[in-house]
Specification:
3 domains, Chitinase A, domain 3, alpha+beta, two-stranded antiparallel ribbon
Length: 345
């Protein structure tokens, strides 16, 4: 295995992490835990989670032996200490999902055992002593040192940004912070492909009648939508299409919705697939959120920007502080050597 392949393997060989990824948001574990909200969540060992009150007169529970194996594969094992260390590094939500889904937990433990077995086999074969492995480890070590040291020397002061700096950044960024107008829209849709003149004429006649009914005093638009709308997804919701921005609407409806007042019903709108009748149920005009609402995100952005600037300045100082000499002939020789080696292979 050459060094480039070793690098690729090192980048993707996170066996237990990959297995654990199946327990994230939207996974089976999430679905199962959500599906049984009244079932008490229990710890891996079987005891109910949460604080435990010791009864008066009873002795304290004995200390748990964290060296005891949780899972084994021949002579290879995963101890409680190993498992505890990994579980403590997980977000609480992901830890509870894993706890509630034994199938995913077992899969994760198998992955950890597979990793240990693989490392044991590689060690027996003397794999860690290979020169290319040493080079990969040296590169990884150097990258960690470089990143963490550069972060330490470029860290902004704890009091940055000040409230005045936050206010100034907020004032300069209002155009980017503006929340677009949002509309809650309901519709009645009558299917009538524009190539079918007879269907279009019929739909337009029915739509005109429905608009009169929808605009009448005490009209119930939702009931009309449930009865007449031919868009199955929204008809059962009383025509409710949810809240959306203008950009989320199809182009032919944007102009109409933008000029409707809250509670107003549109004229019939002919579209390629049929006729729409739109009602704006609720409208929130474009607005800039107050500073208090966005200052935490703004502070993070300013600190990140300041740190990046400081890191670049630090690196430039290192380069500019000495004399840089690049030997062009040696650079060309390096390229030529690689091309020659590739040709031989």
């Amino acid at each position: 295995m050459n060094e480039s392949n070793i690098l690729r393997v090192a980048a993707v060989l996170g066996l237990s992490a990959a297995l654990l990824g199946g327990c994230g948001d939207g996974g089976d574990a999430h679905a199962q835990s959500q599906g049984a909200p009244n079932t008490p969540v229990r710890a891996v060992g079987g005891a109910a989670s949460g604080p435990v009150t010791q009864s008066a007169g009873k002795s304290a529970p004995s200390k748990i032996d964290v060296s005891k194996p949780v899972a084994t594969l021949g002579t290879i094992s995963i101890s409680r200490a190993d498992m505890d260390a990994v579980l403590r590094g997980l977000p609480s939500e992901q830890r509870l999902q894993l706890q509630a889904d034994r199938a995913s937990l077992d899969q994760w433990l198998r992955g950890r055992l597979a990793e240990k077995a693989l490392i044991e086999q590689a060690t027996l074969q003397g794999w860690p002593e290979r020169p290319e492995i040493h080079r990969v480890l040296e590169l990884a070590h150097n990258q960690v040192v470089l990143r963490t040291y550069l972060e330490s020397v470029s860290q902004p002061p704890d009091d940055y940004p000040s409230q005045q700096e936050l206010q100034a950044a907020y004032d300069q960024s209002k155009s980017q912070l503006t929340m677009p107008a949002r509309y809650r829209v309901s519709q009645i849709f009558l299917a009538a492909p524009y190539t079918d003149n007879q269907a279009v004429a019929k739909a337009r006649k029915q739509a005109a009648d429905l608009v009169k009914q929808a605009r009448a005093a005490n009209a119930d638009f939702a009931s009309l939508a449930r009865e007449y709308s031919q868009d199955a997804a929204t008809a059962k919701q009383g025509g409710d299409s949810g809240e959306m921005t203008l950009q989320q609407l199809v182009p032919g409806l944007r102009e109409v919705v933008q000029h409707l007042s809250e509670g107003e019903v549109s004229d019939p709108i002919q579209m390629p697939g049929g006729v729409h009748i739109i009602k704006v149920v609720d409208a929130h005009m474009a607005q800039v959120p107050p500073l208090a609402q966005v200052q935490d995100q703004l502070r993070i952005a300013l600190r990140t920007q300041r740190q990046q600037q400081a890191a670049r300045a630090y690196l430039e100082g290192l380069i500019n502080g000495g004399t840089v000499s690049i030997d062009g002939s040696e650079v060309n020789a390096a390229f030529k050597a690689i091309e020659t080696a590739a040709t031989v292979q």
